[in-house]
Design brief:
By secondary structure, this protein is an alpha/beta fold. It has helices at 7-27, 43-59, 74-86, 107-111, 125-133, 143-154, 174-183, 198-203, 256-259, 274-291, and strands spanning 3-4, 33-39, 62-68, 92-95, 163-167, 187-191, 207-210, 228-231, 235-241, 247-251, 265-266. A six-stranded parallel β-sheet has the order 1-11-8-7-5-6. Strand 2, helix 2 (43-59) and strand 3 (62-68) form a beta-alpha-beta unit. Helix 1 runs parallel beside helix 10 (274-291) and helix 6 (143-154) runs parallel beside helix 7 (174-183). The longest helix has 21 residues, at 7-27. The protein is globular and about 50 Å long.
């Protein structure tokens, strides 16, 4: 039976540390503050915003919300970005992506308008370059792959000299996760939709980070005893029992009932990586306030 790498334990430790750090900042007259920019009212955005606001309150971070209507123009969004950039009381910014369809042609332009020092989730090109250069002075990494690293650190999983496979090559999770694992001295292979014989590649790894976003894509054929599996994805499984005793619940990439008995340790979904991301967001805000 695998050890469950529970996000709650990691989050509790992060929160306790952040509470001490925010208290120290407030004693100096600095109120660490997160600005949230949201265009429209996408239900998943609203859900994450609610969770982030609750987590901010818990650790001592203030929140300022900037809500724009679904039909906001490029100029409307640019004006709000300029406002938060100029506001010295706002230390970090979470800007929900993607924008509504009519704004997507300007997405890169608008994201790069954000001050990288306030970019808490790696939306700007400069923040991305910081991930690839392993430079913490160029912004902050995306919260989700950073949460994966927090889990590895908390559970004492040393990546030095280990073989790691990342499944997925998105700019949001896969690519930055690969860079961050290399920073931890792992030897990294990135698998994607054109990779030949992914199960064989994965079986050769010591650590697997699965960010494919495909339900039940990581099966027993992909794993062997002794491995660490970090399941990043959140998928909907219509056949999975939920807490109410009916069918329909979130699940990861891993076919958990097959993979868990084989590997040494695994993050559950839910209860794994996703539960750590908002604490990582708050950690970035606190770090930005400390630098300011």
């Amino acid at each position: 039976m695998a050890k469950l790498l529970l996000g709650k334990e990691v989050t509790d430790a992060l929160n306790a540390d952040l509470q001490v750090r925010t208290a120290a900042l407030r004693e100096k007259g600095i109120n660490p503050t997160l600005g949230i920019i949201r265009v429209g009212a996408n239900p998943s955005d609203l859900s994450y915003e609610k969770g982030a606001t609750k987590r901010a309150e818990l650790v001592g971070v203030d929140v300022k919300k900037f809500e724009l209507p679904e039909d906001a123009t490029k100029e409307d969004v640019a004006a709000v970005i300029d406002q938060v950039n100029a506001d010295e009381t706002i230390h970090g910014v979470l800007m929900f992506q993607p924008f509504p369809k009519h704004l997507r042609p300007y997405q890169s332009e608008l994201c790069n308008r954000l001050d990288p020092k306030k970019d808490m989730d790696c939306l700007t090109d400069l923040s991305n370059s910081g991930v690839y250069q392993s430079r913490s002075d160029l912004g902050y990494p995306p919260c989700t792959p950073a949460a994966c690293m927090e889990i590895l650190d908390y559970y004492g999983i040393d990546c030095t000299g280990k073989s790691a496979v990342v499944i997925g090559r998105s700019l949001v999770v896969g690519k930055p996760a690969a860079m961050m694992l290399m920073k931890k001295n792992a030897t990294v292979t990135v698998c994607h939709t054109r990779t030949v014989n992914v199960p064989e590649v994965c079986k050769g790894a010591d650590i697997i980070v699965s960010a494919a976003g495909v339900l039940n894509s990581l099966t027993a054929d992909y794993v062997r005893p002794g491995q660490i599996v970090i399941d990043v994805s959140i998928n909907w499984d219509a056949n999975k029992p939920n807490a109410r005793g009916t069918l329909g619940a979130i699940a990861g990439d891993a076919k958990f009932e097959e993979v868990e008995p084989i590997v040494a340790a695994i993050t559950p979904v839910p209860g794994g990586v996703g539960s750590v991301t908002t604490s990582v967001l708050m950690k970035h805000v606190v770090e930005a306030a400390e630098k300011a």
